[in-house]
Amino acid sequence: xxxxxxxxxxxxxxxxxxxxxxxxxxxxxxxxxxxxxxxxxxxxxxxxxxxxxxxxxxxxxxxxxxxxxxxxxxxxxxxxxxxxxxxxxxxxxxxxxxxxxxxxxxxxxxxxxxxxxxxxxxxxxxxxxxxxxxxxxxxxxxxxxxxxxxxxxxxxxxxxxxxxxxxxxxxxxxxxxxxxxxxxxxxxxxxxxxxxxxxxxxxxxxxxxxxxxxxxxxxxxxxxxxxxxxxxxxxxxxxxxxxxxxxxxxxxxxxxxxxxxxxxxxxxxxxxxxxxxxxxxxxxxxxxxxxxxxxxxxxxxxxxxxxxxxxxxxxxxxxxxxxxxxxxxxxxxxxxxxxxxxxxxxxxxxxxxxxxxxxxxxxxxxxxxxxxxxxxxxxxxxxxxxxxxxxxxxxxxxxxxxxxxxxxxxxxxxxxxxxxxxxxxxxxxxxxxxxxxxxxxxxxxxxxxxxxxxxxxxxxxxxxxxxxxxxxxxxxxxxxxxxxxxxxxxxxxxxxxxxxxxxxxxxxxxxxxxxxxxxxxxxxxxxxxxxxxxxxxxxxxxxxxxxxxxxxxxxxxxxxxxxxxxxxxxxxxxxxxxxxxxxxxxxxxxxxxxxxxxxxxxxxxxxxxxxxxxxxxxxxxxxxxxxxxxxxxxxxxxxxxxxxxxxxxxxxxxxxxxxxxxxxxxxxxxxxxxxxxxxxxxxxxxxxxxxxxxxxxxxxxxxxxxxxxxxxxxxxxxxxxxxxxxxxxxxxxxxxxxxxxxxxxxxxxxxxxxxxxxxxxxxxxxxxxxxxxxxxxxxxxxxxxxxxxxxxxxxxxxxxxxxxxxxxxxxxxxxxxxxxxxxxxxxxxxxxxxxxxxxxxxxxxxxxxxxxxxxxxxxxxxxxxxxxxxxxxxxxxxxxxxxxxxxxxxxxxxxxxxxxxxxxxxxxxxxxxxxxxxxxxxxxxxxxxxxxxxxxxxxxxxxxxxxxxxxxxxxxxxxxxxxxxxxxxxxxxxxxxxxxxxxxxxxxxxxxxxxxxxxxxxxxxxxxxxxxxxxxxxxxxxxx
Length: 1024
Fold this sequence. Notes:
26 strands, seven-stranded parallel beta sheet, 41 helices, single chain
């Protein structure tokens, strides 16, 4: 006989039998008519404690403590009671058997001997309260109720069981019963099992995912996995925290990540945990750290990060779960803390967030930290304890040199890397060398499918630009640069005639501001102030100009800039050339004005409060989205900043890989029923980069890397780096070979500049040689930087390494002197204000145009659905488009403006021709990009199976329940047309809906069937 639509009583009977026969829970019976049902069955608890050898006095006192802890009343609400009960369960009840005697611990649950506990199941447990309720199933351990389960028939949504459980916890019903309950479950045979904890809102109930060979339905599968005796107690003992007023349990990825790490710790083998952004990586750290402390002798945990936001977030999470974590203030403080054994949990910021503008600056900050560290290490230093090092954002925090320094400081420590982003390209090799293979992975598409984070909606917008007066541009440029050499003019053009500079012109920025202001009035979550937005600018200067434009449009007080910039008079000391304001001067003034306006005090006083300003505007953005509606950022806040209210991300910056993925994840956090997606608005044709990044984030982690391969990575990388350095050295040595002995300053000037100092013709003739020198010095400097920390591993002796270091430094000095001698060390600051004026004045911008939107397609759904070979399905014309589709604009510009030879004649064209060419290229690329997106949208439509008419979940449930398609559709229409507002909570309005539905049904439609039908209707939100 078919079990389709079977009553929940049949399902309940099967589940009770599963718990009894397969999992070994004692069946206590049906307690519907039993009196005195409680969350603490004293008779069962006393019997178990006596069987484990506890005396009468200890038992009496322990039960008294437990009863007081479990009491829910004024000043001791459910959260406090549940937390107090959990503490007694987890750590035992400390009581004295008699006056003057020593404290003893009564373990209400024997965590060490599983079989010493009594596992039992009761059904239909009638509980008296404000209004009596009857949970379908209650799981008891030693007479203490630890879980409830509400079951629904297969035709009724599991959400009804969830809401029933949440309702049971309200003061109107049986809230005190849940003071001992650790997990709450709800399920049916179609949707399976959902689980939560006390006061968990419906949207945060979770699904347990675990592979199994058992051929059972989803409900039975999850119960067998979660309620198996050892697993059930382990989930309670090791995976529950009370975090700042919210009780939290593990998602399946957190549980299995910690378990996999435990196995690695047993083997003393490091590795990387990659759990995607927003999937609870911080709590995974908490649970693993607590387990290490309790299960590893003399354990100490050091957490390392490189961003202030992440450092503060980690501290907040651990404090939230009542774990004191010590934040070191410097490298010296870190050494001192490791040198004593007082602190077991330590976090260290390896260098403060200053948003380095380049990898070089980041490397310099790392080097400074290492120097400080080494300077403070005492003789014969050895860190106290058994050290475990957690490295947050492992792909970034631990460069090769930093990791070497930490390994030297802590040679016996075990290193575990954590990352919310996969290891891409060059990061793969270095991170695998550093930490080892992956311990556990949880990819982005998995998190979206699980409902842990939201999918993303994408919209591409284009702003066309055009040059208004080419003749005046040329006249201005020639007048301003008449005393410069051709090479210096080329350098000035190279700096300013880039797509980045073109895109930063004020008219274009104004159109972006106008766009966002319009969205603030039209987009639902922005309009009703439930959500807010972030705008990513290309540079700090652009962020400041955008902020100024927003303020001029009346948005002052509702937006703020958050970047790494701290206004300092030292930064502008050499910026004034008498030729107008440079970008640094303007951003300095705008920042000061923003701070002064915010604090309502003089700028000189306010400019010292950048950190306070940042804290306050971030808090406003998270807590009061209607007041702080927009944050303008560049690099900061694009990682480690969680703001569920953030709904729209506007991007006007070229981004890729880690940076791009972390940025888009700022808007994928859950936040209320009205936030279905995070929205990405792209002004920079980033879809290809997004597509590539998301494929990396949803693909299998580093396919093909076995342990033996990882061990060989270091050798391969260093071998290649040595080859590059040797080649670069050989090239530059050959280049300077013709210089006459003794190869001093005078001889280099003679060869690369002019034999007769200042001779214009000789300088011009020697231009190609200087260009080759400049490029060769750049190449050898870069090659040396890539291997400087691994010279010994590369096979160089100490003498050779020192000699090469000295040789590279000498080439840098030669380049500097040659530039001076040729008059090519131009201070371009004096031209900056004029070039900015040129771009802002003569390059105009049109209103933005929506190039493409994927409408009902989420980004993850689209990209995973189409697969990595989607481009292969496109027409050949689009597929073969040279660079407009597959490369970023910046790379396009560099390819056009920087040829293999710096002597590209384009540098000597009229500057207006350069501008026109760039603008035309941008316009052409926008058209090509539009075609590309149109093709992808068409592919997405083809990938989705078409239906005659869309069937939403409520209608489908009616069809399944009634077995009559036409009847179900009529009832669906009636409900939508007649339902009054708030009918679910009004008996009078319910009667109206019931009568309308009843009128559509056949006369022989039974009352029981009708009640079931109404339950189906009420269970679906679209009918509310």
